[in-house]
Amino acid sequence: MKKCSLISSVIMIFVIMSCVREEKLETVIDKALLFSEQQYRLMAEKYADHDSILPRSFENGVNTMSDSRWWTSGFFPGSLWYLYENSENSTILEYAKLYTDRVEREKYTTDNHDVGFMLYCSFGNGLRLIREKRYEEVLLTGAYSLATRYNSDIGLIRSWDHSEDRWQYPVIIDNIMNLELLLWAYNYSDDPIFKEITLSHADKTIEHHFRSDYSSYHVVSYDTILAIPHTKQTHQGYSDESMWSRGQAWGLYGYTYLYRELKDERYLIQAQNIADFLIHHPNMPEDYIPYWDYNAPDIPNTYRDSSAGSIMASALIELSDFVGESRAKEYMAVAEKQIRTLASPEYTANLGGNGCFILKHGMGAYPFNSEMDVPLTYGDYYYLEALTRLKKKLNE
Ligand code: GLY
To answer: What is 35-394's CATH topology?
Structure first.
């Protein structure tokens, strides 16, 4: 009898231990990529015949779509490219090409700064993976269109044309992301204008967008005569002096790739300082998926932003390649935690649910009560990029 209960206790302990033991990271990544492929295949099939529309979000049980003009248009095709990169599946490839072509007309966009997001995530990834010559012309034309928004007196690319009467020349932190298209164009064409714009925009953003603690403002508007900021405010954050989470993640991601491309130590230091500040911020949750604003007054009883988590994870994985050993370990540990959290049922949808998006709990624009606690196409994109980067790193 005693022997029997000893054996059953040992079995019980063994069962409990195997339940609590963490799944191997490789397995988490493989499962997440497989699920994402199945989920996005459903999405791609659903809208394949609807000419010119692209997935954006899912609200109140309905998919919200956009045409190519909306800033998020390049993310769904970009996500399909990452899924193709991982699966080499020919159906996914055909969908990636189909949805990428829907964004082509944005190469002529000169009335907003988002052309970098739109084209580099879609055509940029496509070119990287299949070397399609036609994509080069799209990217170069788009880069010249983006360059028209640069004012050399001010030294920055203008973000929005609408000014809401309070901004003379608004530049938002998100704009740092669009420079990657210009760097591609510089490497491709050797036209020095692309490098000149990139360096000036990146340097002025360090000078004027960042506070002394390395948090950043969302909108900095420049006086068009004096060429210096006349106001620093928010648009999507809690307040002008708060830290809007996605904006912090854009800054981190931006200076990380700027260092990758330009090898200027100042950009590495900027990225490191942003990362260190965010990771150790008192309002950063234990699972490292940020609240929608680090200064939201109702923390912890407020929304997370899974997109800020996925952008940050992807940036940290890349940044860990450029820093010393102990920092690299810390950045990878944070990114791993973020990926494990995002891949868990708390954040990952069920197959066919969530409007066929992958991640739940993104925050579009809280102050406008818009896209609150919903899937966001860019959250999925940077999640897939992070998974891809992590997988490559583990295989090194
Ligand atoms: N670029 C707009 C946003 O991050 O919401």
So the answer is: Glycosyltransferase (1.50.10)
Residue 71 in contact with ligand 1 by CB distance below 6 A: yes
pTM: 0.95
Our answer to whether residue 174 is catalytic in this structure is: yes
Q: Which of 236, 311, 312, 374 to mutate to test the pocket of ligand 1 (most atoms within 8 A of CB)?
A: 236
Which one of 121, 174, 370 would you pick to mutate in the ligand 1 pocket, going by the greatest count of ligand atoms within 8 A of its CB? 174
**276 among known catalytic residues:** no
Whole-angstrom Cα distance, residue 243 to residue 245? 6
Sequence ranges of the domains in the chain: 35-394
pLDDT at 383 over 80: yes
Q: What is the pLDDT of residues 300-335, one digit of tens each?
A: 999 999 999 999 999 999 999 999 999 999 999 999
3-state secondary structure 28-97: HHHHHHHHHHHHHHHHHHHCCCCCCCEEEEEECCEEEEECCCCCCCCHHHHHHHHHHHHHCCHHHHHHHH
List, for residues 98-132, the tens digit of each pLDDT value: 999 999 999 999 999 999 999 999 999 999 999 99
**Ligand 1 close to Cβ of residue 56 (< 6 A):** no
Nearest protein CA to atom 1 of ligand 1, as residue: 174
